[in-house]
Amino acid sequence: MNRNIHHAAKYEDTCSLTFHLPPSIFHSNHSHSLAMDLPMDSMAASIGVSVPVLRFLLCFAATIPFSFLSRLLPHGLPKHLYSASVGVTLSYLSFGFSSNLHYLVPMLLGYASMLLYRPRCGLLAFFFGFGYLIGCHVFYMSGDAWKEGGIDATGALMVLTLKVISSAVNYNDGLLKEEGLRDAQKNYRLIKLPSLIEYVGYCLCCGTHFAGPVYEMKEYLDWAEGKGIWSSEAKGPSPSPYGATIRALLQTGFCMAMYLKLVPHFPLSKFTDPTYHEWGFWRKLGYQYMAGFTARWKYYFIWSISEASMIISGLGFSGWTGSSPPKPRWDRAKNVDILGVEFAKSAVVIPAVWNIQVSTWLRHYVYERLIQNGKKPGFFQLLATQTVSAVWHGLYPGYIIFFVQSALMIAGSRVIYRWQQAIPPTMALFKNVLVFMNFAYTLLVLNYSCVGFMVLSLHETIASYGSVYYVGTVLPIVMILLGKVIKPGKPARSKARKEQ
């Protein structure tokens, strides 16, 4: 959980969790007329949300028809101008004029770093982008407004920051020789500086700048200019987006219905209610699970809208399956695998199924770049990546605690997985016991940990953790220590092992 119907995850191999639809900031102070506000007041009241939240949801839903219209435009400059203008307009209608002024700061700093000092532009954009984002987090502390039903543009600023940084890093990589580069660096590096309108179009591209998903400048340029998999020479027929869009819209409706059904029964305020602390241990654990389960449907709803918007534009297309006949894949638009999250057999896989594109970004631009040549990644890379993810979300104690917790959770789950992989096929029953143990461990620790992410304050986080005797903190530490003592033999290499 999180904010503006928030954002945020992490990566198969590394592992970082970003439980966020990015937060919010600049409290909306629109100067809309009274004539416009009165109908919105009654409409907002009828569905139980504030007027700023309703305005945001309407603009967010509008990204779908606007994204459809982008399909009708010629390639090149018209698509870039359209992407930029629609992004600016919808941001203004959602959050007011100040939102676009805030976007300008990291965008201009990032572009200036590419223009003036290419050899270090990635590093400069990283510190400028995160520096400004942290400043906004500290100044506005929008999590408090979010908990009271408010909304602002911080979530969009968070997504924008990642785009600005990746553009500069990839332009920096364009100076390097291909030998020794990872596949992602080879695929996304920029040899030539994008024009200013290409850059702005990428940063504010309609349908993705509100809550993601994050994608690469190279992918955007190929889509806007009809190159790569979007070219007329590409293999396969032109993919039809309509079936996948309808599926995403049906998922959107189901997720919102689930959230509206559950949220009155499992409010976050219960964690500070004296009656909660009078419950028994198992009932408290059960409530923590249901509170997390309820909050996740909010994210599923928002990301489903983003997915529909990106698919209908065509930008979400990521190639064809190898089946006969081949089917179009829309992986670039996918930000969550609902069943993958709810039935995760290991905490390690959660970054690969939750806030997927931000997880991928963290893997490519933080985790992998902290690994020294010839050395294997360890807990340092995982913890550093989790720290970046926590800072990106905001400086509330609940975020920091959650992401440290998630690093411990993943490390403990890896221990169980290594034991599981070391069991020979002849002991299938014992192996299945370990599989179930990892599933139960993940279910318990994840929902315990995410309470901090939802309540944000140090007092509420510690109170909720303490109410169940810190079981979700103690258990991962015990597993990590046991892993130092009970060291399984090395199993044969397998696909599953590689994924871990």
Automatic annotation (TrEMBL):
Record bears the keyword Cell division: no
Major localization class: membrane
Topology within the bilayer: Multi-pass membrane protein
GO molecular function: acyltransferase activity
Residues spanning the membrane: 43-69, 81-103, 123-140, 299-320, 396-417, 429-456, 468-486
Top-level taxon: Eukaryota
GO biological process: lipid modification; phospholipid biosynthetic process; triglyceride biosynthetic process
GO cellular component terms given for this protein: endoplasmic reticulum; membrane
Residue ranges that the Swiss-Prot or TrEMBL entry lists as coiled coil: none
Pfam families the UniProt entry points to: MBOAT (PF03062)
Annotated keywords: Acyltransferase, Membrane, Transferase, Transmembrane, Transmembrane helix
Record bears the keyword Glycoprotein: no
InterPro entries named among the record's database cross-references: LPLAT_7/PORCN-like, MBOAT_fam
Subcellular location: Membrane
Protein name: 1-acylglycerophosphocholine O-acyltransferase
Annotated organism of origin: Clitoria ternatea (Butterfly pea)
